[in-house]
Amino acid sequence: MILAVDPAANGRGDRGGRLTAGRGWRNGVTADRSNRRASATPELVDIVDRPAGGSTDPLRSLAETVAARLRERVVSGVLKPGSHLSEQALSDELEVSRNTLREVFRILAGEGLLRHEVHRGVFVSTPGVEAIIDLYKLRRFLECSTLAQAQPRHPGTKAMRAAVVDALRCRDAENWLGVGSADIAFHAAIVDLADSPRLSSFYAQIALELRLVFGLLPDPEFLHGPFINENLAIVARLESGDPAGASKMLEAYLNRAERLILNAYTRATRSKLPSDGSRSEV
């Protein structure tokens, strides 16, 4: 069965819809993934489809395939922090055993995307203030130092420019989740300037956690809109041959972004996030 999101579940396809399934799950996954790759940036394809161990065991391989689909829902902003994942419902919809689904949950919990609550079930993780601060500390350390030492003609510079173009296109279409994805791709391209596969792989995990943070905030336009032109200015400075100047711009940018997100998170947790466990269910 092909994992999808039913927009009718809440009236909008871009907000936490119910996971559904259609015929041909196992045979349809490849075609569904190919269609999504056509509209996704290369950086996000890498984040979503990276192997979770590369096992040749059939059960493990199926679990990794299902995990990739659920991971994609997090990256795209469809699965929101706090969403409850019903083991029975997902097992029925995906036509996989509960044992397979539990392996999926174990994989994603190991990545920090899901958490298990005793006697309550499995939920999409909800980052707290400490996690947000730590993420931005890591981002400043990784991105600013990488950018300061970058070669302006590195292929990653073109990837940064392409991500900005994609963000502008999404902004014009008022696709703010798309703008968020383009922003993540822009910063992943900065890390790729280091030519370190391990560093890029590490940053892919940070990108997943960032999407969880973004999902906490109710207004993606407010979150992403102010930074599109700043991304453009940063890549233009790098292209001009001034990586050190671009790095200083990025550091100031990340400081402002952290403050904006922490303030917005505080407002959101006061008024939006449930405190009685009445989370949305998938």
TrEMBL record:
It comes from Aureimonas pseudogalii. CDD domains: WHTH_GntR (cd07377). Keywords: DNA-binding, Transcription, Transcription regulation. The keyword Transcription applies. SUPFAM superfamilies: GntR ligand-binding domain-like, Winged helix' DNA-binding domain. InterPro entries: GntR_C (IPR011711), TF_FadR/GntR_C (IPR008920), Tscrpt_reg_HTH_GntR (IPR000524), WH-like_DNA-bd_sf (IPR036388), WH_DNA-bd_sf (IPR036390). GO terms for molecular function: DNA binding; DNA-binding transcription factor activity. Pfam families: FCD (PF07729), GntR (PF00392). Residues 60-127 form the HTH gntR-type domain. Residues 1-40 are annotated as: Disordered. This is DNA-binding GntR family transcriptional regulator. The keyword Lyase does not apply.
